[in-house]
């Protein structure tokens, strides 16, 4: 996923269907310098982690 789209999704009030390794996730914020996103799995909101933007897929 490109950085601009990830930022749009993070700022959107609507939930978008984004996955990481096939797992539905929520993008909290995007780090422009590192090209990463802070995310959590929808089924485990307490477990936040950083992923490369290239690992995120929108359906």
TrEMBL record:
Protein localization: Spore core
Keywords assigned: Sporulation
Induction line: Expressed only in the forespore compartment of sporulating cells.
The UniProt record lists the keyword Iron: no
A biological process term (GO) from this entry: sporulation resulting in formation of a cellular spore
InterPro entries assigned: SASP_SspH (IPR012610)
Record-stated family: Belongs to the SspH family.
The protein, known as: Small, acid-soluble spore protein H
Protein source organism: Lederbergia citrea
């Amino acid at each position: 996923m490109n950085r601009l789209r990830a930022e749009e999704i993070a700022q959107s009030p609507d939930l978008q269907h984004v996955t990481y390794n096939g797992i539905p996730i929520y993008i909290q914020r995007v780090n422009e310098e590192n090209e990463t996103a802070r995310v959590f799995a929808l089924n485990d909101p307490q477990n936040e982690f950083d992923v490369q933007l290239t690992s995120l897929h929108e359906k």
